[in-house]
Design a protein that fits this description.
The complex is a heterodimer of chains A (354) and B (463).
Chain A: H1 13-16, H2 23-43, H3 46-72, H4 80-97, H5 103-122, H6 131-150, E1 163-164, E2 169-170, E3 173-174, H7 178-201, H8 203-213, H9 215-220, H10 225-252, E4 254-255, H11 262-275, H12 280-304, H13 310-331, H14 336-349
Antiparallel strand pairs in A: 1-4, 2-3
Helix pairs in contact in A: 3-7, 3-8, 3-10, 3-11, 3-12, 4-5, 4-6, 4-10, 5-10, 7-8, 8-10, 11-12, 12-13
Chain B: H1 2-26, E1 55-61, H2 68-89, E2 97-103, H3 108-118, H4 134-147, E3 151-152, E4 170-171, H5 177-191, E5 202-208, H6 211-214, H7 217-227, E6 230-236, H8 244-253, E7 257-261, H9 265-276, E8 284-286, H10 293-296, E9 307-310, H11 318-327, H12 343-366, H13 373-381, E10 384-385, H14 387-393, E11 402-403, E12 414-420, E13 425-427, E14 432-433, H15 436-454
Parallel strand pairs in B: 1-2, 3-4, 5-6, 5-7, 7-8, 8-9
Antiparallel strand pairs in B: 9-12, 10-11, 12-13, 12-14
Helix pairs in contact in B: 2-11, 2-12, 3-4, 5-7, 12-13
The chains are: A mainly alpha (354), B alpha/beta (463).
Amino acid sequence: MFYREAGQFKTSYKADQAVFPIFQDKIFVAIWLFIGFVVVPMLASEYMFRAIFIPVIIMALAAIGLNLLVGYCGQVSLGSGAFMAVGAYAAYNFMIRVPELNPLICFLLGGLSATVVGVIFGIPSLRIKGFYLAVATLALQFFTDWTFSRIDWFTNYTPSGSIAVQPIEVLGLVFDSPIRKYFLCLVFLVIFTIIGKNIVRGRIGRAWMATRDMDVAAEIIGIRPVYAKLSAFAVSSFFIGVAGALWAYVHLGSWEPLAFDINLSFSILFMVIIGGLGSIVGGMLGAAFITLLPLFLNQLPVWLGINISTAMISHLEFMIFGALIIFFLAVEPLGLARIWQITKEKLRLWPFPH
Amino acid sequence: MNHSLLFRALLICVPLAIGGCGQDSGTDTSTSGEAPGSQSNAEGVIVDVSDPNAQFVPVLSYRTGAYAPNGAPVANGFTDYLKLINARDGGINGVKISFEECETAYSTSRSIECYERLKGQGPTGAAVFNPMSTGATFAITEKAPVDKIPLITMGYGRSESRNGGVFPWNFPIYGTYWTAADVLITHLGNINGGLNNLKGKKIALVYHDSPFGKEPIPLLKKRASMLGFELLSIPVTHPGVEQKSAWIQIRKQKPDYVLLWGWGVMNSTAIKEAAGVRYPRDQMFGIWWAGSEPDVRPAGADAVGYQAVSMISSGQARVHEDALSYLYDNGLGSGDRDGVGEVLYNVGLLNAALVVESIRAAQSKYGKKPLTGEEVRWGIENLNISEEAIEALGLTGYMYPVSLSCSDHEGKRAARLHRWNGESWDYSTDWISADDSVIQPMVKSASDTYAKEAGIPTNACDS
């Protein structure tokens, strides 16, 4: 009833090609931005910022980045944790060795370093595909784990290999309070989402999708696989690298190589799969799902006043979390983004489905 | 049709799974023992976190995951002592203690989440955090000064954080890893008839590849260059069940001694692997986190003769009898009755005793009411536990006189070694002091570097 595009006529190509061609979608996005920028900062507590919003936003950025690679270009990667590590350590080293650099530029340089690594480790994708490529990217994961824990230069020779970050100060403004950190992450996410959405709508994104759907056919219609695959690796690892720098600087504050281990790669891949392959909004939904559900399950017994031991809660958390993942994948293999899309289509017909 | 079938299957499966888990956990030694029938006994012992007159103490623990066999007894000892203070003494000077456990699974990111969750609980916020993990300590060290909550890291954490001038909020009481490493080297010197005789020897460090395991390396390197022994650093990847290559390396290199810097399942695996390559166990020396019952029991007879440096050994003092009679006889104990008095249980208990005495010290200045983290910090820094006070606590022989100051947040730089005889841990040496003329310059330079990077002052003690 409310969600219906009847009467919205496109009179120009520009209007027809808009990101959100339907007027209601624009309102909807505006409402979300309003919630993100106004409502949440007014209502959220410190715990909500630090343990919920900031991690989810950064993980959403990483998941969008991985989704560009896996969802749009069809190159399975298990190296996201490694790209995040490269972004984090590169940002740290730029900050410590060139102290006059603006931290935001350091984050972007961290992303660029991840891009370089991503392109180098993306080269095998020209020859190997599918699961074999996943294994090849796994090598990157172990390679970075080894590099950052064994080569002391990267950690500035700290004895324990654990890094403590410098304060983030941009033009005299110090990002120390949770609300400022939240805004910083949110602005990053919004900008990168706009960039990501526009890339996948454009020529490059179409080249990626053509490669994903059938690489031989894509090559025949004139898409160079080298260019398509490596550009997907480059853009994706840039996103993930920036997310890694934010994760380290804004969320963790201090980290060890283990913070970017294989488990992180897996959980980002799960975010993409649960959220929905080949969907920007899917990355966000997946990140929220994977990050928040365990916390929610962990605290639920306390809220309900059920007195069980913390060990029991943890066991339950794992079991229910696992069951829910299977449930969602069984009910909707295309992910949360597809559920969202179906909801929209149903809304179009509602309340008269026939 | 397909979907509805699936829904039904899930509806049946999920409760089944939960029910199954409940039964499973009933036999789990690590679950807390609050039996449903003992609810009335809990009155006054387990205090609700929302109680406006109670002092809130957060508990970060790990009863699940790879480190659960070691994490659970520590948490049991810690929470038992807090409960005992409520049950036996009616709180600290009448101020009851409330606490909440948060499961970290020894993961740093989960520890941060727990820290954020618990720091604002209770009427005055968290009194003091005990992260129970070196990795988490590094992360929380960055957050604690902002939130003004002190950290007690008893026998772990950053070694340079004993310098209160740079780290006003960190308290590595009873020894840092540099102290422990130096005690071990001193001991090796003693059994060789002097430190100078270590020249030309080969000492291997088999370490958990994490901030925890890497902490002793700078000190051992410095000692190696001073004394002329060769140091082999052999990392073992988390969680440490796979260390074949490390021990093949040891068989090849034949070091004179092996220092084991492990935690959790890594320790028993290392002892078994040592037996596998026939490396003599009496030439292996563990850190205090590699010297407890879960580390040696799985290795059986292979572990006999293995020694470890010790903050506190196994055994029972008067306080244990109180714990048994006040808590376990009423069904209020946190763990199994048999676990009371094991090494890691005692570590948790000692840690809780430090927390309680710090709060008591702070109360002498700020009054007998729930205190904020900042007030408790004063109490820790001015902690002065005498032999008489320990006698009064019923911890004679298990707690040691300690007094802290702003410049020294460690308090005690000596430890004993204990040896596993197949049945129990027995002290094998007297107190061995670390050489502070070696450690102090390292503390100074490491904390100065930290202060410079973080942009914080180094003179918090002067004001």
